[in-house]
Amino acid sequence: MRNGSVSSRSCPLARAAPAGRLGKFFDALLWMARTGAAWRDLPEQLGKWNVVYQSYAYWCGKGHFERFFQGVQQPDLEEVMVDSTCCRAHQSSACARKTSRPQVIGITRGGLNTKIHAVCDALGNPLRFVLTPGQRHDSKPVPELLEGLQAKALLADKAYDSDKMVQAAQKQGMEVLIACRVNRKKNQRVQHTHRYKARHLMENLFQRMKVFRRVATRYDKLGVTFLGFVHIAAP
C-alpha cells in the first residue's frame, strides 16, 4: 500500500481484472479489506461507496470470488494441511437482519467471533475456506474441506485427532500425520516429526491473511460478504 491506496499487484483477483472500471472496483475492495474502514469512508476516487457495496454483495451472492479463487489454483497435493483461526466480530457485525441464511457468528468466552477453517496444499497455498460460528469444534467442517481432494497425506494438530477423522482421511487414501492427543490410549500412530514441521505453512497463511484488517476482525454483518473478503485476502 502506498499513499493510502492499495496496488492491484497485491491480490491475484486484482491482477486478473482488466484495466478500467473493473480494475477500480477491485482496488476499492482491496482498500476496504486492508483498512477495515466503513463503506461510507471509501475514497471518492475509488467510486461511490453504495455502488461498490451493492456490486460486491451481488458478486458474493453469486459465488464469483470463490470461483476466481479456485480458478487460479495449481495445487501440490503431495500433502494437505487443515487448521482454523478465530476472528473477533466487531459490534457492527452483530445486528444483521434475520434471514434464512445463517451469518456464522458464535458466542464464546471471548465474545462474538467467527471461525475460519482452511485447507492448504504442500506449499502452503490455500485451497478452500469454510466459515462456522466460533464455538464450533475444529474438526466438524473437515469432511467438507477435504471432499474430492486426492492428496497423499493429511497434516493437522491434536484438535483433529479423533477416530472418525482418521478413518475418513484413510478412506480417501491419505496417510494420516495428525499429532496424537495425550490421553489417546488406542491406535497410537508413529509421529513423523520432520514432516509434521511443515505445518507451520498453515500458520503462516493465517498470519498473511490477517494483515488485512477486515479479515483479522469481522466487520461484515453477512457471512457471505465476510467470506468474500477472506478469498480476496488469501495469497
UniProtKB/TrEMBL annotation:
Q: Name one Pfam family in it.
A: DUF4096
Q: Which GO terms describe its biological process?
A: DNA transposition
> What are the protein's GO molecular function terms?
DNA binding; transposase activity
Boundaries of every Transposase IS4-like domain copy: 78-222
Instruction: Tell whether Iron-sulfur is among the UniProt keywords.
Output: no
Residues in Insertion element IS402-like domain copies: 24-69
Q: Has UniProt tagged this entry with the keyword Manganese?
A: no
| Keyword annotations from UniProtKB, A to Z | Plasmid
What is the name attached to this protein's record? Transposase, IS4 family
